[in-house]
Amino acid sequence: MEYETPLFFHVMQYAKRADRDVIDMVSGNPDWEPPQALRDGLHEYADLEPEQFQYPPSEGLLELREEIAARRGVDAEQVVITNGAGEANYLAMARALERDRGNEVILTDPVYPYYPGKTTMLGGTQRFVATDDEGQLDPADVREAASEETAAIVVNSPNNPTGAVYPEETVRELVAVAEEYDAILVSDEVYDHFDLSGEFSSALEFDSDHRIVTNAYSKSMAITGVRVGYAIFPPHLVENAKSRHMLVNVATTRPGQYAVLQALRETGPDYYEANRDLLRERVVTFTDALDAAGAEYTTPKGSFYVMARFDGYPGTLENVERLIDEAGVAGMPGEAFGDSRTAWLRFALVTPRVEEAAERLATYFD
Ligand SMILES: Cc1ncc(COP(=O)(O)O)c(C=O)c1O
User: Fold this and answer.
1) Residue 279 belongs to what domain range?
2) Is 45 contained in some domain?
């Protein structure tokens, strides 16, 4: 079996090697501060007793699992603390495929590229369902694609790369489709704190034995390097997932879990609101400049990303490299996200230089 290295790394490296100043709009690394309590937690950790530097319980620190369970209205037994949302998605997809109820994973197009990559790695096959121009998914299309071969339906809202936020009816229906076909809905909600529309609905709102919710603190606390996330499983699916997590990882980082727990307890809603406000401002700045450049674009309802289309400049890897060399702006090629956005480029708004980047693009495409 051959695995593909995500294209993302290639573009990052190309931008790094460039012989000029490049504004990075490739990565999903927030450029703003983590919560103060997160920093305090990490400082404090350095002075703890040696036993605190040893293995934590594999499924995660009990206090953190209890804190998450209380916030999400589930039992702590259902919560596995993972190495970010990435591992949570892997565990969820693996759990769905190992039920032997089928081998197909329904994904959206456009898609977050790690999902098709994980599907291949886990021996499944992908079946893509197109979203509309705004990135909205019609559950009727998912129902049509579903069959007894469907092991999982993997969705992400707020969405990377489209910025779509699925309304309550969509999420409810997706859970219903998973139930009808005895499949598992995997709902990746890693951008839940970046719902700019107020329309976000978590799959946890719909009680079901057929859905797994994944999440992480990577984006919400601006700590993609700390590696703390979680998955919430239905009770009858959780044991195997814990075993897989133990066999693959042993556990995830203990200092990270400690600091996240502290930050969860001490960080108020104003921290998250301030970051959303910052993003809202950046969306306006960037899309105003795209207007000036005569580009077509999507205005995100959530997450960090704007997709843009410049006339006669399709979103190929080659064009992305040209944009790095000639305009000094690095984005992601639309072709990385499936077949439906090959004409588009994706820009991440996690740089303080959004305005400058927009000006560079406007000048370049003038
Ligand atoms: C949709 C989506 N899921 C998962 C991840 C990975 O999250 P983590 O860093 O917590 O593993 C990302 C990162 O960009 C993402 O965009």
Assistant:
1) 7-34+269-365
2) no
| Element (DSSP H or E) covering residue 276 | helix 269-292
Instruction: State the CATH number of the domain containing residue 102.
Output: 3.40.640.10
Identify the domain boundary among 266, 301, 329.
266
Whether the Cβ atoms of residue 26 and residue 6 lie closer than 8 Å to each other: no
Strand positions, DSSP E, 69-114:
79-82, 104-109
Residue scoring higher pLDDT (4 or 319): 319
Pocket test for ligand 1, best of 160, 194, 223, 349 (most atoms within 8 A of CB): 160
- Per-residue pLDDT tens digits for 288-302: 999 988 999 999 999
Packed helices 269-292 and 354-365: angle between N→C axes, nearest 10 degrees: 10
In angstroms, the CA 49 to CA 60 distance is 19
Pocket test for ligand 1, best of 112, 189, 212 (most atoms within 8 A of CB): 112
Check whether residue 230 and residue 280 sit in a common domain.
Answer: no
The count of domains in the chain is 2
> Is 61 close to ligand 1, i.e. is its CB under 6 Å away?
no
User: For 120-174, how does the pLDDT look when each residue is reduced to its tens digit (9 = 90+)?
Assistant: 999 999 999 999 999 999 999 999 999 999 999 999 999 999 999 999 999 999 9
- CATH code assigned at 283: 3.90.1150.10
Does pTM surpass 0.90?
A: yes
Asked if residue 175 lies in contact with residue 55, where contact means CB atoms within 8 angstroms, the answer is no
**Percent of the chain at pLDDT exceeding 90:** 94
Average pLDDT estimate for 237-248 = 98
What does the alpha-carbon distance between residue 320 and residue 83 come to, in Å, rounded to a whole number?
30
